[in-house]
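tool_call: predict_structure(chain=1)
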Amino acid sequence: MWSKVLVLFCMVLAVYGQTMNDSTRLIQDLLNGYDKMVRPIADQSQPVSLNISMDLVAIQEFDEVLEKFSVVAIIYITWIDPRMMWNPLNYNGLYTITIPVTNLWTPTLVVGNSFDKIEPIGGDWMTARYYANGVSVYSPGNVFQTTCSVDVTYYPFDTQSCKVMLIPVGSLPSEIKIFSSSDTILKSFFSENGEWEVISTSVAVAETDIFALIQFNIKMKRRPTFFLVNVILPIIFMGFLNILVFLLPAESGERISFAITVLLAIAVFLTLVGDNLPKTSKPMSLICYLLLVNLSLSTFICIITILNLRLYHKPESKPVPRLLAAIARKLNCMSAPAGNAIQPYLPDSINEISNTEKENVSFTMKKEPNQMSTSKEEIATVVDWKDISRMVDKVMCVFSLLWIFISSTSFIAIIAEK
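tool_result:
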């Protein structure tokens, strides 16, 4: 009994197996009388609705100097073509098929903000997929190169917003209507970029009097570690290195060469940073101002070093003004200039002094204490040009240190606030 029921069930069970003939017959039936110049809608007074979305694959390049943005992406375009409907039962259950785009109507989309040239996306070698209910899916993929306005104010801690704008060229808004089923860009096959991090994406649709458009917005943030290690920190370190010129002895003869070497190093860094930024004056990068401040300080240090060496080697025959001498004594913590103190002569053995000489020395020290005090005061007032040079070194060292500290902390504070 049960065996007869099983045989009967197998006889009535429908089994579908599509063959090559089924696919050939379906394509011939669909393309018979098909005109790809006519929009796929029965009422030609109504627009064809295109559902467009983007699948971001990778950020290929972002050139700040050329303001060029390149991404690898796949564009999914979906619409309904009533001429491409069929009953799968008539073709052994065949419910979907791919056909070359050269034989059928497909929307002609171009990148409206293309960097190089305007040309349709996709190619004649591509195919579109059609389903039995008339749903058509066209998925061209390419490298999209667009223009992008660059804001390098906070470089290399900057964020950039770029877009890919698609326009159905040659079609009015009354002929093609664009919408997107997704508010963001898809990332099904996305590969991270070593320099840029995508922080947000969005999709916007707009219409003008002559065309509709869809805009894919990508907001990305620069990964600053490379520039922090190779640009920012060396600039700050060179600023502090610049101050050490005032600690070099004037007798070494290396002061000017040291100051000029640091000046040239900062100038090289200024050139390197400038080569990686767009040649625009608005906005200017804060790091350019930081380099300019350090370059100005280095130039100022070179000038002061040269003038200070002239002071150091100034003839002692020219007297030091009393005001400078008083300031130098305070700043150098001097009671008497180095090397000017008078040391009394003491014999190797006290026995070498006769009793008469001892009495004379004792009598002189007791009799003329005021005279010796006056002599010490006169000695304390002696300040030469070398002492003035040392005073200038101390003042400029503190001034340069404050300059570097204020400029560096101001730069860091502005970046941190942003």
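agent: The chain has two domains: 18-222, 226-314+397-417. Proceeding to next step.
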